[in-house]
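tool=predict chain=A
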Amino acid sequence: MKEINSMEEFDNFINENENAVVDFWAQWCGPCRYLLPLLESIQSETNKVALAKVNIDDNPDITERFKITSIPYLIKFVNGKQDKVNIGNTTKPKLEQFCGISE
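tool=predict ok
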C-alpha cells in the first residue's frame, strides 16, 4: 500500500490510477489500525484498485484540502475525480464493495 507524503504524490496517485482509494489515518487511531490490515489484504488480492494511505498528522495540507475531521476516512477516486467516501470502521466485505471489487 503506497504511503503518500506530499500533495504532489497525492495528485499523481489519483490521476495515474483509474480506480484509487485513499485512506486518511493516524498512528494513534485505534479504528485506523484495525482497518489497515483489511486494506492491505485487499491490495494483495486484487489489482482492480490502487490503495494508498495519508497520515493526517504528517500531511495537514492534504487533510485540509478534503476537510477531514474524523478518521478513518476513505475516499474513492475514479479517473481522478472523487467518487464516494466512507467514514469510520467497516468490514472487509463492505470495503471490497466500496473499492469496487465485489458486488
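The mean pLDDT is 94. DSSP finds four helices and five strands in the chain.
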